[in-house]
Design brief:
By secondary structure, the protein is mainly β. It contains one helix and 18 strands. A hairpin with a 2-residue loop joins strand 12 and strand 13. The longest helix is centred in the C-terminal third of the chain and has 13 residues. It is globular and about 60 Å long. The mean pLDDT is 91.
């Protein structure tokens, strides 16, 4: 759930044994409901196997959301509170020469961190409409209230690319999930050990539920 216009989606699937190549099996028969602390309730509609979409819900900053998924006679629940957004100040680009003497481009997202409150960030990017994979999340524990930059995930930027950057404001539990997920990945997509990241879903399972705000900025790579 975000502060952008819906619909929002929930993916429900069965887990598979660790280190298998089996495709996740979506669950068709789940009952999925999202409600908020303002009294709004939305029963989601299945659109394809395992994917459920909201019908009326609109995310609002500051509200606490409850996800309930009932499947195979089990009820799973998760709470998430949507933090206020932080505006992106600018997008910066840097050129460097690697050991192979090839030039590469990197990009950073600049913003002012709100002081006096714990904030948790995740940067997402689309290059020419293609989403860039990243699980990295950041906390402001060491730079509270400062002007800050975070790396924008990308494969290869070249001049003329259209870069759309989204700065997500997460709640603490969702940050813990992504932070652990990045650690488990070993930094190079190589798992350090077969362990599930902490989840805000009870009873514990693999996955997370997030209510987060979003700010965006678009730049053309110079």
């Amino acid at each position: 759930v975000t502060d952008e216009p819906g619909p929002y989606y929930v993916l429900v699937s069965k887990s598979t044994p660790y280190n298998t190549k089996q495709i996740l099996e979506g669950v068709d028969s789940a009952i999925v409901v999202i409600s908020d602390d303002a009294g709004n309730t939305d029963t989601l509609t299945k659109i394809i196997q395992g994917v459920y979409l909201t019908n009326t819900l609109q995310g609002v900053v500051g509200r606490r959301y409850l996800l309930e998924v009932r499947t195979e006679e089990k009820l799973y629940q998760a709470f998430s509170t949507m933090p206020p957004p932080v505006a992106i100040d600018s997008i910066g680009f840097d050129r460097s020469i690697g050991f192979d003497n090839r030039e590469s481009l990197s990009a950073d997202c600049f913003f002012r961190d709100p002081a006096g409150v714990a904030n948790y960030y995740k940067v997402e990017a689309n290059i020419n409409g293609e989403k860039q994979p990243s699980n990295e999340a950041s906390a402001d524990r060491l730079w509270d209230g400062k002007f800050r930059n975070l790396f924008i995930p990308n494969d290869t930027l070249i001049a003329g690319d259209t870069l759309e950057v989204s700065l997500l404001m997460l709640d603490g539990k969702v940050f813990e999930y992504f932070n652990a997920l990045e650690d488990v990945g070993g930094g190079f997509n190589q798992p350090a050990a077969p362990a599930n990241p902490p989840t805000n879903i009870m009873p514990q399972t693999l996955g997370y539920f997030s209510a987060h705000s979003v700010s965006k900025k678009i730049a053309i790579v110079p």
